[in-house]
Design a protein that fits this description.
The protein is α+β, with helices and mostly antiparallel strands. Helix content is 23%, strand content 30%.
């Protein structure tokens, strides 16, 4: 199945060229880099304010877990990400041209997947010098927790 997904995803890659980045929702924060954000700091996904609740690192990935800053959110509107959102990026030490290209390819493939046990990708964000960031729903617990419950 993976080989089949890779074969069909390859033609999608040109869709996400630099011209497309101008249409991506921006990710803003007050730190020098995304990786310096800590609990309690504010992040904006477009016009929507979120507060960092926690972060995690593993392998080549870096995750931020955010909660909507409801009192400061645009009134009478609903955002695509809801109350809780998780952001995934590449750790700074793992970023080179090849790693960035692989991460972008992962996001392109992920954006086309729709399967019950895969967390859906809500949006690919433009984090400026930090590169592309995946935005997805934040589900409580871990995969290990959910597998333990099933077994």
């Amino acid at each position: 199945m993976i080989a089949e997904v890779m074969r069909y995803a390859k033609p999608l890659c040109p869709v996400f060229d630099t011209a497309c980045v101008k249409q991506m929702t921006p990710l803003h924060h007050d730190c020098r880099t995304l990786y310096e954000l800590r609990k309690g700091q504010r992040v904006h996904i477009g016009d929507w304010p979120y507060i960092v609740q926690k972060s995690a690192r593993g392998g080549m990935g870096f995750l931020l877990f955010l909660e909507l800053d409801g009192p400061n959110a645009p009134p009478g509107q609903f955002g695509v990400h809801g109350l809780w959102v998780a952001l995934k990026s590449i750790q700074p030490g793992a970023v080179d041209d090849e790693a960035a290209a692989l991460f972008r390819r992962e996001l392109v493939i992920w954006s086309g997947l729709n399967y019950g046990t895969i967390v859906p990708l809500n949006e690919i964000l433009d984090a400026g010098r930090d590169g592309w960031v995946a935005a997805m729903n934040w589900y409580p617990g871990s995969l290990r927790d959910h597998i333990s419950e099933v077994l």
